[in-house]
Write a structure and sequence with these properties.
Layout lengths: L2 H10 L9 E5 L5 H8 L5 E5 L5 H6 L5 E6 L2 H11 L7 E5 L12 E7 L5 H7 E12 L5 H7 L11 H11 L4 E13 L2 H10 L22 H11 E2 L2 E14 L1
Parallel strand pairs: 2-3, 2-5, 3-4, 5-6
Antiparallel strand pairs: 1-7, 6-9, 7-9, 8-9
The structure holds S-adenosylmethionine (SAM).
Amino acid sequence: MQENEYKRYEEIGNWDFSDIKYTVEQNSSWDFYKEISKYTNSSSLLLDLGTGGGEKTLSNMPDTGMIIATDFSSKMIETANINKKNYPNKRIKFVTMDNLNMNFPENLFDVITARHTIIDAKQIHRCLTPSGVLIIEGVDKYDCWELKELFKRGQAYNDEIAISKKDYSDIKNAGFAEITLQEIVQYEYYKTKEDLLALLLKTPILDDFSELDISSNTHKNYIEKDLFNKYVDEHSTEKGIELKRLLYGIVAQK
Ligand SMILES: C[S@@+](CC[C@H](N)C(=O)[O-])C[C@H]1O[C@@H](n2cnc3c(N)ncnc32)[C@H](O)[C@@H]1O
């Protein structure tokens, strides 16, 4: 298990950003949930990996026969079960499970989804039905690049291969027959400095959870004030403080 990441997600306990005020302008028409709708119907069995507190899965996932949503953090699953009470008609079950140690039977799921979480393509391939589909949205190396360049660190900052390319080749090597990879450029505009700071303190954008040296369970991200203010000064626009996101989408058929 990824010990540092596990501790951070247990500490955070939800993936809710509803308190942060920002708007989004997307340059790509690729949309994770619209892609999922194309491959599901009212009898599909869907597995959502690394679901967090189920926030997005509960509100955005199309209605299918049944959704199993997993996360390795039991705190996240606890939150998801609380959030589920607001969606009494959603056919969904939350389960604690490590994406890198999945113990579902072979050929079970029609669709497996993973948004902003780690995957093991071989294990996913095994659990999908013969015509099953994997749909991913990921955060790429060059996400928030101006910010990472300023701080000289961040998620995947030192990676030699972009995460999208690594995922693509792992998925190919796992035996998937048809794979499409789509780059997604998105501009986010944060209303205030505090909104942007709240995002940076909660996510691994600047402090990659996997690279943190966590000596206690109460670790807090550290953001250098002078660098943060410099970024804000240089990226303030009429729409808000701009953050350029670089994401990717993958659809892979077994
Ligand atoms: C960035 S959050 C994304 C949550 C949700 N998918 C979303 O898009 O809102 C990543 C989630 O993946 C979970 N996660 C990270 N590594 C995992 C692993 N090896 N197995 C299962 N879950 C994992 C974390 O606990 C966290 O809830």
